[in-house]
Amino acid sequence: MRFSRTASLLLIAALAATHAIAAQDPSALDPSVPPMRALIERFSADQATLLSVYADPLAPAARARNSAFYREQRALLAKIDFNALDQESKADYLSFSNLLTQLEHQLALEERQWSEVAPLLPFAPAIFALEDARRRMERPDPQKAAAQLSELTQAVTANRKALETKVRDASPADRINAWRAAADLEQLTTQLQHWFDFWNGYDPTFTWWAAQPYKQASAALKDQSTFLREKLAGIAPDDKATVLGTPIGREALLQQLDDAMIPYSPEELIAMAKLQLAWCQREMVKASREMGYGDDWHKALEAVKNSYVEPGKQPDLIRSLAIEGEQFAEDRGLVTVPPLAKETWRMEMMSPERQLVSPFFLGGDTILVSYPTDTMTYEQRMMSMRGNNPAFSHATVFHELIPGHWLQQFMTARYRPYRQAFSSGFWLEGNAFYWEMLYWDLGYDQTPQQRIGALFWRMHRCARVIFSLSFHLGAMTPQQAIDFLVNEVGHERDNATAEVRRSVNGDYDPLYQCAYMLGALQFRALRHELVDSGKMTSRQYHDAILEENMMPLPVLRALLAGEKLTPDWKPHWRFLDEVK
Prior knowledge:
66% of the residues lie in helices and 1% in strands. The protein is mainly α. Strands 1-2 form a two-stranded parallel sheet. β1, α14 and β2 form a beta-alpha-beta unit. α7 packs antiparallel against α8 (204-232), α10 (266-290) crosses α11 (297-305) and α19 (425-441) packs across α23. The radius of gyration is 27 Å and the shape is globular. 39% of the residues are buried.
């Protein structure tokens, strides 16, 4: 397209005016969209930009900048006239305010957790200082940099000597802190490498001075990480069984539950999950009797596990189950499935390394199939094959694809995508598990083997609530959690170990594993209110969930029910009262 000279001048003038306004008010939002959407979109873009620059979450500078950023967002939110907003925007206001609260509390938790391991890493500030200087694009003095690296090596060596005296008397808390410190030190070592690589070779003088001191410092840091993990934490290099984690305590759990708008105590949720687990085990006995194993559902479960397909046939099985699960939803008019969504999901095989922490398949636009490779030991192969048998897979392939995670991903990219800022396990995993519960109610699992497969996963989600909350309360150790999964759910021990490791090692937030069941029960209770009452059809309800996109589920309930919203609105939804 070509512009006339006059049009070009007008365009330049308009851009100049826009830039002038932005210079006067850097927080000016996009006027082409509603103000709350504009604020949330700006937040997401600004957050991504900050994370790209303040890349080390351990660094004090990163925590300080994030804290300031959240205060800035609070100030911007306060400028918006809540009463002038429509209902959708009011829901956005409440969701965004809640998100900021969650982020502020998470930052405080990370600060507390760092303070617990920082005494084991007294030399960390030296690494932070070097990385901060690189972020500010300050050219280092080569000789001074070499001296700093030499001092860092000396500090690591001195720290090692001081800690060696504590190895014999290390308490359980000391072991956990040492294990966490080893992981943090690996991250610090990577940051130091980034700093060195930035200048190395591009500044010959820097390389001449700093290359050897850096090599010594990097080696000392790696040795220290090994010492912390193997000697102080007591985890040998070939130890695949020991699991350590970081319990956050009851007070922090209560705060996280409040942030998630869950009006229950950890103890109430554990009691609920135990009731759900008992129901599952009664249903297991019914299926076991149908299979001829009487009341010994463990034997029936063993028979189901041993029904695995031969090597090379698992992709065919997953494809057929994906089509079956998708067709079940469409035949019953449960949800709208766009043709493009059906066409474009893909399949890949999961690596042996990833299977150590994800023993079962994962989903989204690509379903990652967990099945043994020729590099695994015989025991690992058998556990993988038994843990991914047809009945287990029948119950969960649709959880990963359609109407589960892939349909979620497809629709939320197309309807109110700015609300993806409010993503949570309660919405993502809760909705996918809700489909498992609904499919059970609608008779998807027809054979006793299929019902055992579905019940296994339901028991698994019950157990996650029990062991994860109990762990963070200090009432269950990781080893006890592993035993619990083996004895009460019927997990293979390696799979149970991987599950607990993933749950407690800090890669997931403390409530993530609870979110499957708690989110599903919220969706189930809301269905009871809206669908069973005749206010909506199943398709209308399920389409509305996807088209409204992600948000705290009590806010979604208020939105769909037309509840009056105020700036100080607080949910008091006792959703467990609706659970049958």
